Structure formats: C-alpha cells, structure tokens
C-alpha cells in the first residue's frame, strides 16, 4: 500500500499562533510582554484599602478612649489636690477651735476685738488727727523708718543769706489799738 499522505498541521502555515486572535491584531501582539513593559500593579489593592480603613477605625476608637482616660486622670489628680487642701483647712480650723478652749486666748481676743480691760486696769485708745480711734488695720509709723530730710549744701545757705541781705523783708508794724481795756472778742 502506498504510504499515507501526511495531513498538514492544524492551523495551516501559522501553526504556532493561537486561533482566537482578535481581528486587527497582529499575531505577535498576543504574546506576553516582557517583565519590564508590564503594567505596574496598583499601589493599594482592595485588601490593603480595607485593612487601612479597619486600622483607622481602631486608631480613632482607641484615641477617643485614651482622651477620656487622660481627662479622668487629670480630674482624679485635681480631686486629690483639693482633698489635701481641705485636710489642711480642717487641721487649721481644729487648731483654732482648740485655742478657743484656753481662757487666756479668750481674754486676749476680748482685749483686742472689744477693747475690754480687767477691773483696776486703765485702758487707752489711740486716735488719729481727726479724733477717730485707730482700727487694727491702721499702723503707726516707726520713726526710724521715716526718711530724714537731706540737709542742704553749705553754699545754698550762703546764697540764701546773700539774697536776704540784698532784699530784706519788710516788717509790718502793728496798728495800735484804739481802745485800751479788757479783751472783748467774742
């Protein structure tokens, strides 16, 4: 028998190209591009975006919780400071109360506040220039604290005497009384 004729390969003369090539494309365009010419992958994928959103929500929720925590800590610190201050006030008031149990303290307060004196003692009250009594807020000035006036230089005194010699003061003569007798001024 005669040898069988070989069938040509499928696809004809272009057997190495795929059959589903779109019209208008070249046969070489269907091949894969080299690695350097491939389109770059997007920077954020859908998974990365979702993960970023979840992370942002967690940060926001923890930040608000942290803010509330820090605010409460500051309130606690302020409350502790107020407690310490109030305890100091209570201690001072307790000491003041115990002082009022002492008869000598009561006597001292009666003398200072009301001007009371014991029988046989003489009380004095300091008054100001108008005759009003001085209160506890008024203070007499210590003479040592008053600034002494600075004396004038000697040449100033000499200059004043020269001026006085040049222009002497005129003395006014008193007018004589017309009537002699006892003083009758009302």
TrEMBL record:
Ranges for region Disordered: 1-42, 165-186
Biased composition, class Basic and acidic residues, residue ranges: 1-12
Superkingdom to which the source organism belongs: Bacteria
Biased composition annotated in UniProt, kind: Low complexity: 15-42
Keywords: Membrane, Transmembrane, Transmembrane helix
InterPro entries in the record: FtsL/DivIC
Pfam families: DivIC (PF04977)
Transmembrane segments: 50-70
Annotated coiled-coil segments of the chain: none
Name recorded for this polypeptide: Septum formation initiator family protein
Organism of derivation: Nocardioides marmoriginsengisoli
């Amino acid at each position: 028998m005669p040898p069988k004729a070989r069938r040509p390969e499928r696809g004809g003369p272009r057997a190495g190209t795929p059959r589903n090539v779109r019209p208008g494309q070249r046969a070489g365009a269907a091949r894969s591009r080299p690695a350097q010419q491939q389109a770059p992958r997007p920077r954020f994928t859908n998974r990365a975006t979702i993960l970023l959103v979840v992370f942002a929500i967690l940060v926001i929720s923890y930040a608000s919780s942290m803010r509330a925590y820090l605010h409460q800590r500051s309130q606690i610190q302020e409350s502790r400071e107020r407690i310490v201050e109030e305890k100091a006030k209570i201690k001072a008031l307790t000491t003041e109360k115990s002082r009022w149990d002492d008869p000598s303290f009561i006597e001292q307060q009666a003398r200072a506040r009301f001007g009371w004196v014991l029988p046989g003692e003489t009380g004095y009250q300091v008054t100001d220039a108008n005759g009003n009594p001085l209160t506890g807020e008024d203070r007499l000035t210590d003479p040592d604290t008053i600034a002494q006036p600075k004396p004038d230089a000697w040449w100033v005194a000499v200059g004043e005497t020269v001026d006085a010699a040049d222009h002497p003061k005129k003395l006014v003569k008193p007018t004589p009384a017309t009537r002699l007798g006892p003083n009758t001024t009302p």
